[in-house]
From TrEMBL:
This is Sugar ABC transporter substrate-binding protein. It comes from Dactylosporangium salmoneum. Residues 1-22 form the signal peptide. It is found in: Cell envelope. PANTHER family: D-XYLOSE-BINDING PERIPLASMIC PROTEIN. Residues 42-323 form the Periplasmic binding protein domain. The keyword Signal applies. The keyword Iron-sulfur does not apply.
Length: 372
């Protein structure tokens, strides 16, 4: 049993005698016992099952909380904002004590969170900040700006930009415009790369005008969709890379976009080990890690989502017990109404050379799934 789990289990056992048997369905799954007697109900709202990371995030957090004696309601909303709002409303009706929310649209939850606040339900924003409401109590995430910085720094050192090399052809992408994180990822990367764009060492043949890191929405891919990124990369390659021109580097904010971009590169005849461009990513998803091993993606910024779950479970426990909730950043995440006290975890760069030592040896991915 991990240390986090032991601490949580001890606290929950002292308070609770009942164990739970949570059922799980796609739209609604709460335990049968009335929520105001026995263990506290924690609602966990995740955006979508379509991305590997959210499945892992939800399963890990639910497991941790159940083992510690909490009741849980884990819901996935198929990336549909209305569905997520309905799920939250159901959790409130079921008398949840705490809501843990990885939002789809960070600005759309203010009304439902007002209902939650009226019932004294505490809210933890999970991975993505919830904006435009006073009714978000804590935020737990990875250092999102740092994710982008790591991607930018990787590009600089791989290309030797800091040694005066260049010019190179760059195609930049950003994440979904309704996700507050996307802005931070892009800003982190662009604050590193912009000086090379300005000096002409990085050229953007598609002519995407990115004068500052606020311009990220012009290169964003809605819903973080692989197909959207693939179609956009196809467009750019077809329109701006004629006559033998080659793309040298693609800034992709995450793995789902990188997957689509890699498909596009494949279908345009780029070959790993030959002319395949530098391609960044984030999450350490299985398919992308396979691409890293195959030379079709250069790196991923790994966020060990198990540590995020551990941190959120500790927050849940502290809130339940009325003790101090641990945070380590009280400046960065202003949601437009207030600065939300946050806990930021460190992201880690993974390349081909350290897939085994970082992703496999930590148990995040299985060697057998990767053919290692
Ligand atoms: C998360 C990323 C993820 C992306 C798409 C972001 O909010 O921080 O880890 O790749 O959403 O789901």
């Amino acid at each position: 049993m991990s240390k986090t789990l032991r601490v949580l289990a001890a606290a929950a056992m002292a308070a609770l005698l009942t164990t739970t048997t949570a059922a799980c369905s796609k739209t609604r799954s709460t335990d049968n016992a009335p929520a105001d007697s026995g263990p506290a109900l924690v609602g966990i709202a995740m955006p979508t099952r379509s991305l590997e990371r959210w499945n892992n995030d939800g399963a890990h957090l639910e497991d941790l909380l159940k083992k510690a004696g909490y009741k849980t309601s884990l819901q996935y909303a198929d990336n549909k904002v209305d569905q997520q709002i309905t799920q939250l409303q159901n959790m409130i009706n079921d008398k949840a004590k705490i809501l843990v929310i990885a939002s789809i649209d960070g600005t759309a939850l203010a009304p439902v969170l007002q209902t939650a606040a009226d019932k004294k339900i505490k809210v933890i924003a999970y991975d993505r900040l919830i904006n435009s409401t006073p009714n978000v109590d804590y935020y737990a995430t990875f250092d999102n700006y740092k994710v982008g910085q790591l991607q930018g720094q990787f590009i600089v050192s791989k290309l030797g930009l800091d040694q005066g090399k260049g010019p190179f052809n760059l195609e930049p992408f950003a994440g979904s415009s309704d996700d507050n994180n996307a802005k931070f990822f892009f800003a982190g990367a662009w604050d590193v790369l912009k000086q090379y764009v300005d000096s002409g060492k990085l050229v953007i043949p598609s002519g995407k005008k990115l004068p500052n890191d606020d311009a990220w929405k012009t290169v964003s891919i809605n819903g973080w969709k692989s197909e959207g990124a693939q179609a956009e990369m196809d467009n750019r390659l077809n329109s701006f890379y004629t006559g033998g021109k080659k793309v040298d580097v693609v800034l992709s904010p995450n793995d789902s976009l990188a997957l689509g971009i890699a498909q596009s590169l494949d279908s345009h005849g780029y070959k790993p080990g030959a002319d395949w461009p530098i391609l960044t990513g984030q999450d350490g998803d299985l398919a992308n890690t396979k691409n890293i091993l195959a030379g079709k993606q250069s790196m991923t910024v790994w966020k060990d989502t198990r540590t995020l779950g551990d941190q959120v479970a500790k927050m849940v426990d502290a809130i339940t017990k009325g003790t101090a909730v641990e945070t380590n950043d009280t400046k960065t995440y202003n949601n437009g109404v207030k600065v939300v006290p946050s806990y930021l975890l460190p992201p880690v760069v993974v390349t081909k050379d350290d897939v085994k030592s970082k992703l496999v040896d930590s148990g995040f991915l299985k060697a057998s799934d990767l053919g290692l």
